[in-house]
Write a structure and sequence with these properties.
With 273 residues, this protein is mainly β. The chain is 4% helix and 53% strand.
């Protein structure tokens, strides 16, 4: 069954890709190779260990989706298994392929990532969306990792939304703005166990949709909080999507949570080049 435009727009495969867009101006911004510039900033040693990439690694997550207008809430449980399947090439660039069986309860998908000394770059997914295809590639993690720090992920205007929402036979246009912030280290407990020093990353995206028939602007947001543990990778995320009312509907709020149940190791060969 085809996903709705709401799912197409707001669903983000994290690392999902961590998509975002928000106000962390108070945080120190540190780029690849740049020294920390403020007292109290901690540089994470061996940051790549928080994002394991071995071909054959597999994570099993327990998930829950809570969704609905304010007074009508539906709740669904699901399971997602994420596996580093293989390496591949996209436009001559070596990437690794993550296969997820049911991320966010949206059905199977493949996602493509490249890691290098500057960080991790997202190269899109299959099946992808019209908006995503205009945004990729973009960075989702920046090395070295400083706590606290933040960077603008993208700021794109006038994108083809890929759908006609107001029935005038014209696709709407959208502006997309996203920011990633590294908040700190903290303990997190999931079914797989307790991780005392997980890195907490918050990803925020703002989407402004220009409705061509009325000239009205509808604003949606996606906020994802994710915890990464050394040697284990992503152990938990919470994603909250707020979608504006369009025409006769009342808008919708969706909260998605996935927690690590188990992790299986594979052959000790890096998927990244």
């Amino acid at each position: 069954m085809r996903r709705s435009w709401r799912q197409d727009v707001m669903f983000s495969a994290l690392l999902l890709p961590i998509v975002l867009g928000a106000p962390y101006a108070c945080l120190v911004e540190a780029g690849a190779g740049e020294p920390a510039v403020s007292t109290g900033v901690e540089r994470v040693s061996n940051a790549e260990d928080y994002f394991p990439d071995t071909v054959g690694l597999q994570w099993r997550y327990r998930g829950e989706v809570v969704e609905g207008p304010l007074q009508t809430i539906g709740q669904k449980g699901f399971v997602n298994i994420s596996t580093v399947k293989r390496t591949d090439k996209i436009k001559g660039v070596n990437v690794n392929v993550f296969h997820d069986t049911n991320p966010g309860n949206h059905g199977p998908s493949d996602s493509y990532y490249r890691r290098d000394p500057a960080g991790i770059v997202y190269y899109g997914s299959e099946p992808g969306t019209p908006i995503e295809k205009q945004l990729v590639p973009y960075q989702i993690v920046r090395f070295p990792i400083d706590i606290p720090s933040s960077f603008q992920q993208f700021d794109r205007k006038g994108l083809d939304f890929g759908n006609d929402l107001d029935g005038d036979d014209q696709n709407e246009q959208a502006d997309m703005h996203a920011v990633v912030a590294v908040i700190g280290k903290e303990p997190v407990t999931v079914p797989a166990g307790t991780y005392p020093d997980a890195i907490r990353i918050e990803a925020r995206m703002t989407m402004r949709i220009m409705l061509s028939a009325s000239g009205r602007t509808a604003i949606g947001s996606d906020v994802m909080t994710a915890w990464f543990a050394k040697g284990a990778g992503l152990v938990k995320y919470i994603e909250r999507q707020e979608l504006p009312p369009l025409q006769s509907d009342r808008g919708i709020v969706t909260e998605i949570t996935e927690e690590l149940e188990s992790m299986t190791t594979g052959p000790k060969t890096s998927a990244f080049r």
